[in-house]
Write a structure and sequence with these properties.
alpha/beta, 8-stranded mixed sheet, two-stranded antiparallel ribbon, globular
Length: 329
């Protein structure tokens, strides 16, 4: 029986616990909120997210003890928002992850440092990138809960380890495949959330499907330019981990980034949108990190710049999109 620690209590963490535990892995599930842990033990479901999913407590071990959950696991899945991961793991000793495989289910970057989660783990916890994986979509937690056919890509520098993890995920409604592009997948996952924000803003401003299709196709060019500059290698961006993940985030009703952007387009402030959603839209933090990185590269990234200007320079969405639409082709 594989022993896995899942760190986080949100919808994606809940979906992953469902997949892994139903495949008979032992999951030590850490949640910050003590009441949520007690609720899960008593009623066998997460009271806040995907509450229709029931868990077998023979395989799921809810806990508030982060260090204990990590200590007994061979695999550690990080599934908390990027902006909060430092606060969560800061209580762990530096050697806590030694000899373990770290799996990032986070689609964001470390604020201020503007580095990927994998770089943060290597820099601060000495986890070599050969012991790290990233989970990419296209896949929404809500559809996993409904057991709709879903696909995952596991990015890694070690395909053998990635394949082992894929085996732990595969079932009748989940297909998983390894891919040797840890960094490219991770950066793409970050930027696609920014693009989803832009798509939501466009919808909130009453732009139609014609415009959104142009927005998404230009976004792929933006992603391609960025990846070629920061992490050059041969990769097909038409694959599921790149274009597929972008499409589902840009168009789906379940996309929190698209929902957040839609609210911004309709006139909400970022703070009021965050409060009403009661969920974290990773793109809000990610756009600042990518914007800062691009100050070094000076790449043509008009969509990213537009979202940054709206969220951080407080330029009117309508005004900014008037400028943006003349830059798209």
């Amino acid at each position: 029986m594989e022993k896995i620690a899942v760190i986080g209590g949100g919808s994606w963490a809940t979906a992953l616990v469902k997949i892994l535990s139903e495949n008979k892995s032992q999951v030590h599930w850490w949640m910050r909120n003590r009441e949520d842990v007690q609720h899960l033990i008593q009623y066998k479901h997460n009271p806040r997210y995907l509450s229709g999913v029931s868990f077998d407590l023979n395989y799921v071990k809810p806990t508030n003890d982060l260090e204990a959950a990590v200590a007994v696991a061979d695999w550690v899945i990080l599934a908390v928002p990027a902006a909060f991961i430092q606060h969560v793991v800061t209580t762990l000793p530096v050697h806590a992850f030694a000899g373990k495989v770290l799996v990032s289910a986070i689609k964001g970057m470390i604020p201020v440092e503007n580095i990927l989660i994998s770089d943060y783990l290597e820099r601060h916890y000495q986890v070599p990138n050969t012991h790290q994986l990233i989970i990419a979509g296209p896949c929404h937690a809500e559809e996993v809960a409904l057991e709709k056919q879903s696909y995952l890509t596991i990015g890694s520098h070690d395909l053998e380890t990635a394949e082992r993890f894929c085996e732990m995920l595969r079932n009748r409604y989940v297909k998983a495949n390894p891919l040797d592009d840890l960094d490219g997948i991770e950066y793409c996952a970050v930027i696609k959330n920014i693009i989803a924000l832009a798509c939501g803003i466009a919808h909130g401003l009453n732009y139609g499907d014609n415009f959104q299709s142009v927005l998404v196709s230009n976004a792929m060019l933006e992603i391609e330019r960025f990846l070629h500059r920061i992490m050059p290698m041969h990769r097909s961006l038409s694959g599921s981990a790149y274009l597929g993940d972008l499409l589902v985030t840009a168009y789906s009703q379940f996309s929190r980034n698209r929902t957040f952007g839609n609210m911004i387009g309709r006139g909400y402030s970022a703070k009021s949108a965050q409060m009403e959603m009661n969920m974290v839209a990773e793109g809000f933090y990610a756009v600042q990190s990518i914007h800062e990185l691009n100050k070094l590269f000076k790449l043509d990234m008009p969509i990213t710049t537009a979202v940054y200007n709206i969220l951080y320079e407080r330029i009117s969405p309508a005004v900014e999109f008037e400028i943006l639409k003349n830059k798209l082709k």
